[in-house]
Amino acid sequence: MHDLGIQDFLRHHIRTVPDWPAPGVQFRDITPLLQEPQVFRVLIDAFVHRYMGRALRPDLVAGLDARGFIIGAVVAYALGVGFVPIRKKGRLPFTTVAQTYELEYGSATMELHTDAVQAGDRVLLIDDLIATGGTMMAGRKLLEKLGAVVTEGAAIVDLPALGGSQRLRDTGLPVFTLVDFKGH
Hints:
By secondary structure, this protein is α/β, with parallel strands linked by helices. The protein has helices at residues 3-12, 31-35, 37-52, 67-79, 134-145, 164-170; strands at 15-18, 26-29, 60-64, 82-88, 96-102, 107-113, 122-130, 149-158, 175-180. The model has no long low-confidence stretch (mean pLDDT 95).
């Protein structure tokens, strides 16, 4: 299956839920991608094949709370590297570093254990979706505070109309997504 075939295949298995969590929002639900073994394998293999080669192979995969845990942990396992969770504030039991970022209405804070990465570690940062890019940027800043190098930000879905993937690229972060949805 070539890239366009994979994109169409995965897009077909992403459910759009209108007006959730608020009126006018088209929520892109990735849970159907996880429910069928063949679809889940195609999804994971698309990431694994990209990052298996020497040039893009990370030392660690960091996943963003919470759907980034699902994809990131499986990709890390398949690559034979460790997995690091980046959690919402108050969820990690050990000493953490924190990064607050702006949301459409208000702000949020993400945390990372201080011993999660070592200086110089090459880290792939992964989530399910890029909208405004705030969560991924916060994750990147956390990893960099500890001296890691974020080699790429990856996600299943990009919502380019919201500008997040471009904002991330404008900061010098390479971004890789499998499926984009032109509208919100």
